[in-house]
Amino acid sequence: MAQMTRPYAPQSSLKRAMRPWVNAAVAALLALGLAKPAQSEARGSPEVLVLGDSQLTFGAGAAFVDLLTGMSGTCGLGPEATTGVIGVRSSSLLSWSGRTKAAKGAICNVDPKWRVNAAAYGTLSQGQSPFVQIGRGAQFQFCTPDRSPLRAVFHDGYFKPKLVIMFLMGNAADRWAGSLPANLTDALAVLTQAQRPLAIAGVDAVNEGAGPAITAFCRAHGIPLITTYKGKGLMPEGDPLCLGGAGVDFHPELSRLGA
Questions:
Q1: Is residue 184 within a helix (H) or strand (E), and if so which, with residue range?
Q2: How confident is the model at residue 165 (pLDDT cuts 50, 70, 90)?
């Protein structure tokens, strides 16, 4: 039980190891478009909100706070940007995006062993112990009857961060590794709840010859595409959904989209 009551002290090596995962998670967030690019107006709302599974609960959450605090004043964050982290044990993209009681169980049910199922770090920390139960306390009311936990986080300005990072490395990774249909099902569940979806693709898509498939997908669903520098050309540059290469020649409409 000692592991559950002592906040984790991040090490510099862990921060270095996490940097590529942070980049990947940020890209995933942009693709989902779940957070409105508004000001962090909600009372107590962090400017950056990290949501995920037990990898955040047991260590990575505190490391995210440390890392993102050091990034204040860069990457579009304010000079004193605040970070909040919520990691829910045994959760996956399916449980975060599900609306049924069964799908939301991992997030909404009390863990039978530890009596709490989540950990909160940064601006959402609860004093000496970061461990909390979703549904208890004003900051953790994510289990409303008619919404997924992910949608409840942003409903009516409950939280209004500028940036949201989804970090799922435990159960979700096992689920996706074992089933291609599960990958598609989970992605579709989140995509259907996205307010401002935005696709990002890079050199791996070029190597796989995925340009036509990506173009067809974006056109079918009206989703704009940003590519990395080496991914330019995946979609015809003249297509209205093609926003150009990241850091190279963004389409002028990008500012209108709020990205």
A1: helix 180-191
A2: confident
